[in-house]
């Protein structure tokens, strides 16, 4: 009889992060644990893991539910980016206030929308950016930027590949964008944690031991 974990494992993942960072790796998990069957739900709304019967989930941002046990997978940060073709035809970006001369494509679910908060060397700027294109889907914002819509604010895990390939450029790199956050795997308890859940937690922690977007 196999001693490997087995059973039905229900997971809840954030939509964009789940698609980009987790979904392509799930076949590896299934190959390692052939007795486990995965049922994965993707949602950006707040999901009550306990009430909705999930074994584990991944959260972006700070833990807010004291009933859950979390394990930090990675730290993330927000970046300002734009496509090279867009930047070629626009004023130089050297100071935070230069953003006011640019088109910005905004993610409307940002807590401070439409204000972007930046800081450098003890200086802080809160800028209400110019935006004629606003979206509530983070991946759509990136796609628009790739097509030359303007400057965007996006987390590093969302634009890591585009930056590495030169399809987007990190602008104002000396300015830090408010909102450093993290990625956490959460579950209801570790006191009587099923082997299948523990296996997933250890596996996903291993994937992000060295975040692929860095």
Structure description:
The structure is a single chain. This protein is α/β, with parallel strands linked by helices. It folds into two domains: 7-75 and 181-207, Periplasmic binding protein-like II (D-Maltodextrin-Binding Protein, domain 2, 3-Layer(aba) Sandwich), CATH 3.40.190.10; 78-177, D-Maltodextrin-Binding Protein, domain 2 (3-Layer(aba) Sandwich), CATH 3.40.190.290. Helices cover 24% and strands 32% of the residues. It is built from six helices and 13 strands. It has helices at 15-22, 26-32, 84-88, 138-146, 156-164, 195-207, and strands at residues 7-13, 36-42, 56-60, 69-76, 78-82, 104-107, 115-120, 123-128, 133-135, 151-155, 169-171, 176-177, 181-187. The strands form three sheets. A five-stranded mixed sheet has the order 2-1-3-13-4. Strands 9-6-10-5-11 form a five-stranded mixed sheet. Strand 7 (115-120) and strand 8 (123-128) form a beta hairpin. The model has no long low-confidence stretch (mean pLDDT 92).
Biggest sheet architecture: 5 strands, mixed
Q: Can you give the mean pLDDT?
A: 92
Number of strands: 13
Percentage of residues assigned to helices: 10-25%
Count of the separate structural domains: 2
Distance between the termini: 41 Å
What's the CATH C level of the largest domain? Answer: Alpha Beta
Low-pLDDT segments: none
Shape by Cα distribution: elongated
Biggest β-sheet: strands ordered side by side in the sheet: 2-1-3-13-4
The quaternary state of the protein chains shown equals single chain
